[in-house]
Amino acid sequence: MYWKDVSWMSYGLSLHAEELAHMFPGGALFEVLDFSFPLADYRPEVAALAVDGWLRENLGLRSVGPSVSFNEAVSGYEFYWPHDDPFSEHPGSPGETGGE
């Protein structure tokens, strides 16, 4: 698995860290058995959205707000994060990545 996918998956988990800590006070292990996707237009940020969606669907967690939209002006996807852009060297709140 590509390191960027793993990093973004970790970020997707971290978005729910407080709720997960309450649900699993002794800790939890989340094992990814498969992560497949179409290569066309793929961005590693999708991994965070996939984990967020899986957690909400399977554990009944609330939405914390990450999203993606297509920006026709730059012909690319823009991702919105409820907190700082997770890998920015210049953090701000809320965060956005995109346009690539």
Write the layout of secondary structure elements.
Elements: H1 3-14, H2 17-23, H3 46-59, E1 67-71, E2 76-81, E3 95-98
Helix pairs in contact: 1-3
Description:
- With 100 residues, the protein is of the alpha+beta class.
- The protein is 33% helix and 15% strand.
- The chain has 3 helices and 3 strands; from the N terminus they run αααβββ.
- A 3-stranded antiparallel sheet has the order 1-2-3, with no helix packed on it.
- A hairpin with a 4-residue loop joins β1 (67-71) and β2 (76-81).
- The longest helix is centred in the middle third of the chain and has 14 residues, at 46-59.
- The chain is globular and about 45 Å long.
Largest sheet: 3 strands, antiparallel
User: Count of helices?
Assistant: 3
Q: Runs with pLDDT <50, length 5+? A: none
Q: Categorize the overall geometry.
A: globular
Q: For the record, give the distance between the C-alpha atoms at the N and C termini, rounded to a whole number.
A: 22 Å
Describe the structure using short key phrases:
100 residues; alpha+beta; three-stranded antiparallel sheet; 3 helices; 33% helix
Condensed summary:
The chain is 33% helix and 15% strand.
